[in-house]
Each structure stands twice: as C-alpha cells, then as structure tokens.
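Continuing the batch. This is chain 6 of the set; chains 1 through 5 are on the previous pages. Same settings as before, nothing changed between runs. Recording input and output for traceability.
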Amino acid sequence: MSALTTPSPAQLAQTGFHIGSIPVYGEAILAPMDGFSDLPFRSLCRSFGSALSYTPFVNAMEVLARHPRLERLLEFDEAERPVVYQLFDSDEDRLLRAAQAVLAHHPDVLDINMGCSVRCVSGRGAGAGLLRDPRKIARLIATLSRALPVPVTAKIRLGWDAGSRNFLDVARAVAENGGALIAIHARTREQGYSGLADWDAIAAVKDAVNIPVVGNGDVQRPADIARMRRHTRCDAVMIGRGAIGNPWIFQGRERAQVPRSEFLATIRHHLQGMLDVYGPREGVILFRKHLTRYLAPLQPPGELRAAILAEVEPPRLVALLDQLEYLPSQEAAV
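Output for chain 6:
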C-alpha cells in the first residue's frame, strides 16, 4: 500500500528512543486495536507519521493451532518497520512457543498484551488478568527476553480495579526482567474506556523505570500529544480511538486544517487499501467502521450517509463518496 504522504526528516527527528537496539523516531504511535489496526490502517497511519506499527493482539493458542486468519493478522508491509507483534495468553509456555513461531515472519519487537479488559480475555487470566500477579509477569518477561532474539515489551493498565492499582509493581517487574519498553493505558481494567485517564500514573512509571515509557489514554487532538508528553515526560504517546477516522493526528494536524480534497483523497486511499487486502465485498463491509468516523465531521445529509454506509459495490461507493466534494461548506467543515 503506497503512502499518500510521508513525514519530513524534520518531523521524524522530533524525538527518538530505542527499543533494545532498535531506533524509533516520532512522538506518536497508533495503538493496537482489535478490528482496527489492520494492514491498511496501520500503513496509512505509518505514512502519516506513526512511529511504530503494532499488529492487533493475537491469541497464542491461535498461533499454535495455525488458525486460518493468522496470516492476515500477521501480514505487514516492509515500509511499516519497526513492526511490533502483540500476543496474549495466560500460560507462559504457550506464549513462549507462540512467540517463537511468529518469529518466522520477522517482526522487530514482540509485545505481551497485559491491558485487554474484555471479560473473555481478562477473565481467563490473559490481558489485564495478568496484572493480578506481578511475580508471574516477572517470570514471563524474563523467560521471553532470554529466549527471543528480538526485544520484548509489555502494554499494561493501572491495575485490575481501583483497589489494586499495582502499576508500579508491574512496571518494575517488566523493566527488571529484561523488558525493553512499557506502554501504559492509564485506566484500570474495571474502568475499561470510561472515566479520565490518570496521566500522573504515567509520570510515576516514567520515574520508576529506566526503559522507554509510552503513555496512552485521552489523546484526541495533536495538542493532547504535547500536553501528555509535558505532563508525564513519556518517550512517546500511543493513540487509539482518537486516530480512527483521523490519521492526520500523526501529522500534528487538526482535521479542520485538512482541505476537503485531501480529506476525501485519504478516505479513497484507505478504501483502496481495504479492497487490496480483503477483496471487493469484504473490504467495503470492513471499511464501514472507519467510514462512520470519517463521515462524522462532514455531517452529510442523512439520506447520503445512509446510502454510503449501505453500499457494497466499490465503484458505486466511490461515486457516492465523490458527492461529498459538493456538500455546502457549512455541512462539510472538518
């Protein structure tokens, strides 16, 4: 998938840190999001300035069972490097064997998900479920970092709930046992995505460990990136929901600054990437969740919006998207 734009050398040189021996340039990173952080969206965001590409989390059991969808989940473009594969499981042996298996695809970094809050993951001790046992985390990170030829990192939350905010113990368990980076979503498992992210906790982690720290939570606009970095001194900022329908955030641009023609060209480019990866019908259907976010600031008439989101044929969808070019300016302000 070719890039629409590429960050300038000056943009890329704004900041830098290392994951092990791997240099990373840039201050904003697209978060791993199940159902969103696929190859087309990652490639788009990477071309706009996202400093790393994280795959969506992959179930270690699916890796070992060679699930049919695995190849699609692990596929990446060379232009995305550095590429981080993220795995989840509660079993140390399965995680190690799955990590060794995915190395055949040559990722740059292996990340362990310790932040997923959904019940079917955290309830079985994986994802945020691991946060309940920092000693297990220490063993897991030590085992993986010794056995693997790539850096091992972790994405964590503040703790299981408000009464067990053990993020400093978890962060130290990662850093003291060979972990090369910690990304912290500054909410508990209990919070999910509700309430305010606790940026003070990110700052506390940064003070407590000597490896790079990436902050995550409540970043919706370019100004939030700078504000979080000032507040926490984190090495970079991870952006999840704030990037959906808004890849320009990685360029440090507000959507309101994006000319209409460029806005629509980006949507078409993203759509074409989806068609290239998933094929005509599935690509259009899977693109709808992105389209709803792209369309929100455009405020198209209800009939046109409904037609766009119902269309399944790529040529007709493109023709409908073309109509957005001619919306009155008061309806199309982005």
